[in-house]
Write a structure and sequence with these properties.
The complex is a heterotrimer of chains A (about 625), B (about 180) and C (about 100). Chain A is mainly α and about 625 residues long. Chain A has 26 helices and four strands. In chain A, α2 packs antiparallel against α9, α4 runs antiparallel to α5 and α14 packs antiparallel against α17. Chain B folds into two domains: about 90 residues, Four Helix Bundle (Hemerythrin (Met), subunit A), CATH 1.20.120.1200; about 40 residues, no CATH class. Chain B has about 180 residues and is mostly helical. Classes of the chains: A mainly alpha (about 625), B mainly alpha (about 180), C mainly alpha (about 100).
Chain lengths: ~625, ~180, ~100
């Protein structure tokens, strides 16, 4: 069964090729079959391999399948090889499984679009590249997948390319992530310089012997890899591209910008845990980045009006939680939250897409309302997703995953009380803006009539994902609530064990109860402000301070404004002044000089024979003078 | 004998200068003939009688005559002399003369700085020249013959009075009628 | 016998050569340019003969013979060209054939 591993990324790539070359010819129905079918087959094989992995794990809990040698130059050898262990198993499962549901959903969402086959081609390419990323056994293959998903993100954000605003958003995403990618590339160079190999397992096993904890090179390379992760996962300070990336189709936002691509940073740091453990400074940096991001994004989410932008900021915030978990040393908790988040965030995006379809492609949630009765399935699944996001106590999966992170932020090896406070406050904010979104969209009076009722192709994925968003958390229960450690046991083979829990149990209970109570309080506040008595909010935003605050939060805490002034304007000014390109000056100078000589010498071309004779005589004179003198 | 040589040299040089400065072309040609004759005298004196004869017969006798024939054929007339006077202005002389003078000085310097060898003024009979010509320089003779052939054909072709045929489509309106 | 050194002869030949050169550079009339070229050829041949006589060999004279042949052929062709030139431009000004605008 393991030998079929290579089929998992191959099916999507094959799907991409078929759709790219024959897409227009084979029509929409067949394109859908190819597009969804390839991912379906990958998901099936992944699940089968997963079952075998659980029941009959391979040697050392890792399976490597080498396909061929990619580069062999002196002592630099890179293979196309897949490394399957618990971590890549989880990621591959999420990518293919969630991806399958999203592809199925897209057959209805994109049904009226003329770029139907092009969409599925890009989505397939994306899934293939993402699988390359998570299953690659060396950093170069990972980087290939990294760039591949960046490319697909660009292609899909700018899918409706006829509108220049979409192109701008796509370029913004690509350029901002490129900044991170450049940092990552330098990090890879450093790693290669230190270990003379890019094979991940090799690096992780050799690193503790070569580097002592706190080694400068370790800190530098891990910080640079963090830079790459920050870019791809839209964390501070490179989070500005994700809200604008909502210009792409909703299934894209669901797959790429919620469940999978933006978690590539999480995968990278989790995968390279060995070298991060050798650089405590970087771990602290990861945690601080995570904590700061979750707060910033949370605040921004509170003031958004576009439903997709709320979800975008919440994605940034939740990935902040994952980074926080990784930074304090709670590796499996971070990955667990990733898995649960993938389910409920994809669910939320798909449901939001259904709502948008049903409301004449209107995305401003303040123009919607009262959809609870009109779209029942969508409402209930959205509610489940929101509850999971807000970490409603005990019943939702999100509670268990987020709570674990909040607890480890305090008790983890690298944790501190301040991180815990930030995480708790962030949870409160999350609950607030999530249910603000729910109340405004689904309750109250219906402002617009339904334009499109979703069919089974929308409902089935929603229900499937809702199931997992609800019950997926029960495989990992904290010590105070029944101590089930199925997930962390599974991850033990790939990630270092979390050395938490050296605080007393009572503190853990205190943390959980506090978080739960604060979440419920936030939900009630959201209910009161947005359903009961909207006047308070309106009065507040009509004051100068209130309006300013609202605008500040709406614009994502002014980061775009800052970057515009800090980077974009000087750069544009520089390119404008260098339009004549002073480096070119030398190359322009040479022809200019030749032309000057031409202007000088053209007077010798008189056509008068006598003058030519004079010229000859002059030349002879010069030559003989030289002979005489020498 | 030596003084004879110097007189002949002087005549040759003066005649050359006169050739270059005359306005009437026939005068110039005649001065040229004088220069050639003086050169022939020089050849006689240094022991090359064959070449002296050749100079007179071919150079003065054929080439210069050819020049005279062409000038007569062109039928230039008196206004040509006037024209020539106008063309031969004084200012044009300075720079070329200067250049040539400097060049002359340099060549002279180079000549003088070489070693002087005694002059072997043996009279070289024509028979010896002939023998040398047809044994060592046989190829040169043949090539010279080919060159003369080329000259003949070229001269004939170039000097032909061509009948200018205008294609009937290119004829002007007036001519067509 | 003549007590002339080779240097003297060569200097005489050079003077005649440069006279011809001045003639080529100064005169506008094509015929005069051709005549000046003839002077130069003659002077060059003179130098050859002197050199040959200095060694007492016939080679100098043979060289002069070749120069003579060349001069003859060249004059023939040159004069034919001058005739064509005159028929085209109706003048013997060498600048008349100038189509350049430099």
């Amino acid at each position: 069964m393991y030998d079929l591993l290579w089929l998992v990324p191959t099916f999507p790539f094959l799907g991409f090729l078929i759709l790219a070359i024959f897409g227009k010819k084979i029509g929409k129905k067949l394109s859908a079959v190819v597009g969804v079918g390839s991912i379906g087959l990958s998901a099936l094989i992944t699940i089968l391999i997963g079952i075998q992995f659980l029941t009959n794990p391979p040697e050392g809990h890792a399976f490597v399948q080498t396909l061929w040698t990619w580069i062999a130059a002196d002592d630099f050898k890179v293979n196309i090889a897949f490394h399957l262990d618990a971590l890549s198993m989880v990621f591959a499962f999420v990518v293919t499984f969630v991806g399958f549901w999203i592809h199925l959903y897209s057959t209805e969402y994109m049904a009226d679009d003329e770029g139907f086959s092009r969409f599925f081609a890009y989505m397939n390419l994306f899934v293939g590249a993402m699988l390359m990323l998570v299953m690659g056994d060396n950093l170069l293959l990972l980087y290939l997948g990294w760039e591949g998903v960046g490319l697909c993100s660009y292609l899909l954000i700018g899918f409706w390319y006829r509108d220049p605003a979409n192109g701008y958003a796509a370029r913004k995403a690509f350029i901002v992530t490129r900044v991170g990618d450049a940092a990552m590339a330098v990090g890879l160079f450093m790693l290669f310089y230190s270990f003379n190999s890019l094979n991940i397992q090799e690096i992780l096993s050799v690193a503790p012997h070569v580097w002592s904890p706190g080694n400068k090179l370790a800190v530098a390379s891990t910080l640079l890899l963090l830079g790459g992760a920050v870019g791809k996962s839209a964390q501070l300070p490179l989070q500005v591209w994700l809200p604008d990336a909502m210009a792409g189709p909703t299934p894209t936002s669901a797959l790429i910008h919620a469940a999978t691509m933006v978690t590539a940073g999480v995968y990278l740091i989790a995968r390279m845990n060995g070298i991060y453990l050798l650089a405590p400074l970087s771990m602290t940096a990861v945690a601080i980045v995570g904590a700061a991001t979750l707060l910033v994004a949370g605040f921004a989410g509170m003031a958004q009006t576009d439903i997709k932008r709320v979800l975008a900021y919440s994605t940034v915030s939740q990935i902040g939680y994952m980074f926080l978990a990784l930074g304090v040393g709670a590796w499996s908790a971070g990955v667990f939250h990733f898995m649960i988040h993938a389910f409920f965030k994809a669910l939320l995006f798909l449901a939001a897409g259904a709502i948008i379809l049903a409301q004449h492609h209107e995305q401003n949630m303040f123009k919607m309302g009262g959809l609870a009765k009109a779209l029942p399935v969508t409402f209930w699944t959205f509610l489940i997703g929101s509850a999971s996001l807000a970490a409603l106590p005990l019943i939702t999966a999100g509670f268990y995953s987020k709570d674990a992170i909040i607890w480890y932020a305090w008790s983890g090896p690298n944790g501190s009380i301040y991180l815990w406070m930030a995480a708790v406050f962030g949870a409160m904010v999350t609950a607030f803006y999530t249910f603000r979104m729910v109340f405004v969209t689904f309750f109250g009076e219906q402002k617009m009539e339904i334009s499109h009722y979703p069919t089974w192709r929308v409902h089935i994925p929603l229900i499937a994902l809702a199931f997992f968003a609800l019950f997926g958390g029960f495989i990992e229960l904290p010590g105070t609530l029944g101590h089930l450690t199925l997930f962390s046991d599974f991850m033990k083979s790939a990630l270092p064990v979390v050395e938490g829990g050296h605080h007393e149990v009572s503190l853990e209970i205190f943390s959980q109860v506090l978080t739960a109570v604060l979440a419920l309080v936030s939900i009630f506040v959201a209910y009161y402000l947005y359903l009961k008595n909207m006047q308070i909010v309106t009065n507040f935003t009509s004051t100068k301070f209130g309006h300013g605050l609202q605008q500040f939060l709406l614009s994502g805490l002014g980061f775009d404004w800052l970057y515009e002034r800090l980077f974009i304007r000087p750069y544009v000014w520089l390119s404008r002044t260098n339009k004549r390109d002073f480096i070119d000056f030398f190359y322009v100078f040479l022809p200019w000089l030749a032309r000057q000589f031409h202007y000088l010498f053209k007077y010798t071309q008189t056509g008068k024979v006598r003058r030519y004779v004079v010229g000859i005589v002059f030349g002879v004179l010069v030559s003989i003078t030289i002979v005489v003198i020498l | 004998m030596t003084i004879l040589f110097y007189i002949a040299a002087l005549i040759a040089i003066v005649a050359s200068i006169m050739v270059v400065t005359r306005t009437n072309i026939i005068h110039a040609l005649l001065y040229m003939v004088i220069s050639l004759l003086a050169t022939a005298v020089m050849f006689f004196l240094i022991g090359a009688p064959f070449i002296a004869a050749m100079e007179i017969i071919i150079y003065a006798g054929a080439i210069m005559v050819l020049f005279v024939f062409v000038v007569m054929m062109l039928n230039l007339g008196k206004q040509a002399v006037e024209q020539e006077k106008r063309w031969l202005s004084t200012e044009g002389w300075y720079f070329p003369s200067l250049l040539s003078f400097i060049l002359l000085l340099e060549i002279g310097y180079l000549i003088v700085s070489g070693q002087t060898a005694p002059f072997n003024g043996r009279q070289i009979p024509p028979a010896e020249v002939g023998k040398e010509l047809y044994s060592t320089y046989l190829i040169g003779v043949e090539l010279a013959a080919i060159l003369l052939m080329a000259g003949i054909i070229g001269a004939y072709h170039l000097a032909r009075r061509k009948k200018y045929v205008v294609h009937r489509f290119l004829k002007t309106e007036g001519a067509e009628q | 016998m003549i007590a002339i050194s080779l240097n003297t002869g060569l200097i005489i030949a050079s003077i005649m050569f440069f006279t011809g050169l001045i003639g080529v550079m100064i005169r506008k009339n094509i015929m005069f340019m051709l005549i000046s070229i003839e002077i130069m050829l003659n002077a060059a041949g003179l130098a050859f003969v002197f050199a040959g006589a200095q060694h007492g060999q016939a080679d100098g004279q043979i060289m002069f013979l070749f120069i003579l042949t060349t001069a003859a052929a060249e004059v023939a062709v040159g004069l034919a060209l001058i005739i064509q030139f005159y028929q085209k431009f109706k003048t013997l000004n060498s600048d008349a054939a100038n189509n350049m605008r430099g």
